[in-house]
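User: Fold both of these, please.

Assistant: Here is the first one.
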Amino acid sequence: MKQLFSGQMMVSLCVIVMIGSTTVVHADEAGQDWLRKIDAAETVPFSISTMTQTITTSTGSERRFTFKSFSADSGDVSLMAYTDPQRIAGDKILMRDGGDRIWYYMKRRDVTKYFARHTQNQSMMGSDFSYEDLAQGDLEEDYNATVIAEKMEMSFDDDSGEPVVKLELIPTETGPSYAKVILYASISDHISRMIEYYDEDGHEKTLYLLDIKTVDGVKSAHTMRMDNVREGSSTSMTVIDISYKNEPDPNLFTKAALSRTLTD
């Protein structure tokens, strides 16, 4: 995704209801056209936000973090800088080239680790997100898509429901490590609402994109919750505040800047 969606609002799992007899498989071009629409809807030139990240284990215990997030160049570069708790304050995750190159800086040890492409499926900060899950590459470049259902109804709790398209995404040779991805996007605004991730053993986890808001003329999800269907754990992120008005300092997105103190 081109925007860092986030959120911690705990809502029920969405209910997917088929509308009529719409389960058909279209030519690949129809799927690729949808990926172009989704990329266009979810791409912003730059953003600055503050977020919380909550990891909930299968036993119900929680760990919570706060971080600043910066993106520029239409998502090709991004930075996550942790501010709380104190033990990880100053730790940073830098992504360049749409997530093809990722560095993690640990302030306490003054060490920078580089994640090669084949290692980006590792858990990010012990969460249910991998580093590649947060990489902001282009869907059209990373996947080959097929339309599975043209019109479905997706409901969240008391919501009246929203028509979505269901796509099957198969990674390209240079794409993510998943065997396949099932993506549900709004027909009206082309924003992703739910994403299911599959590895060679089957369904691994599901991402819910919730709390849709418009800020500075940009419509996006302010809640991002990843449920691990095998482990029973969950990781949520919440947007505390976000702005699309001011472009971050380009120097933030350099390896040399990782060890420097972040200033507002």
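And the second sequence with its predicted structure:
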Amino acid sequence: VLPWMRARLPLLYAQDRLVAVADLWVAADCVSTPGYAVSWHERPVLFA
């Protein structure tokens, strides 16, 4: 991830626990939950 984009990544929390960083990383125990998906539409270029 480009350094100047790091502060702009959406962080998703469930209560006080970080469960996803945009659609780049999702906690393993959240991936298996049926019915939910993380998707960042119109996301900017994050990698060089």
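Strands lie at 11-14, 17-21, 25-26.
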